[in-house]
Amino acid sequence: MEASSPPIELQLEIERLIAHEAYLLDERRYHEWLELFTDDATYAVSVRDVVQHKEDAALYRYAEAPVFEEGRDFTTVRVKRLETRLAHAEQPPSLTRHLITNVLLHDGESTDSLRVSASFQVYQHRPGLSEQVYYGKREDVLRRLDGRWRIGRRRVVLDTSLLPGTISIFF
Question: Could you tell me the pLDDT band of residue 1, with boundaries at 50, 70 and 90?
Fold first, then answer.
C-alpha cells in the first residue's frame, strides 16, 4: 500500500499480530506460534553480505546467500525437536527477545492478501554459553483465512554473513 496509507485499523491489527508472534517466540510457545502460519506456508532465511563488483573494485553491491528454505511441515519437525533433549543447540534453552519495528503494509495479490515488511533485532542468550544479536528484515505474505490473518510466506534476511554453527531460533 505504498501509494496511500493503509487504514489505521489495519495497521494496528497487523502490528498486534506481529507483537503477539514475538511474545509467543520469546515465551517458547512454539506450537501456538505455528498456528499463525497457513498449512502451505514457507519460511526462508538468508544472509546479506557486501560484495565487491567483479569489473570495478570501487563498486559494491549486496548479495544474499540462502541458509535454508522450508515448508510448514519441516518447521513443525524443528519445533517438535526443540521440545526434546535431542536439540543440542538448545541445551540449555535459549532466552530470546524479539524487537520488531518499521512495519510497513504493501499491496497484496488480493483483498485477502497483504505483503508486510519489517525490521528486527533478536537477542539470544544461551545461559553459560553465548550471546548473539541478530539484525535484519522480514518480508511476509499474510492471508486472511476464516477472518484472521495468517502467515503464508516468511522471508528473513539477516544483516550478517557470520552465523553460529547452527541457528536454533526463529525470526
Answer: very low
What is the per-residue pLDDT for 57? 66
Report helix, strand or coil for 43: strand
Q: To which residue does cell 532466552 refer?
A: 95
b (16+ CB within 10 A) / e for 145-160 = eeeebbbbbbbbbbee
Return the domain boundaries, the chain.
8-158
Q: Between the CA of residue 102 and those of 5, 105, 120, 137, 138, what are the distances in Å? A: 14, 10, 8, 9, 10
- Cβ atoms 64, 72 nearer than 8 A: no
For the chain, the C-alpha Rg in angstroms (whole number) is 17
CATH 2.40.70.10 is right for the domain spanning 8-158: no
Q: Does the pLDDT value for residue 2 go beyond 60? A: no
Q: What's the distance, Cα to Cα, between the start and end of the chain in Å? A: 24
Dihedral angle over CA of 105, 107, 109, 113, nearest 10? 30
Per-residue pLDDT reduced to its tens digit, 139-151: 999 999 999 999 9
d(Cα 53, Cα 55) in Å, to the nearest integer? 6
Instruction: Report percent pLDDT > 90 for the chain.
Output: 58
Question: pTM for the full model?
Answer: 0.86
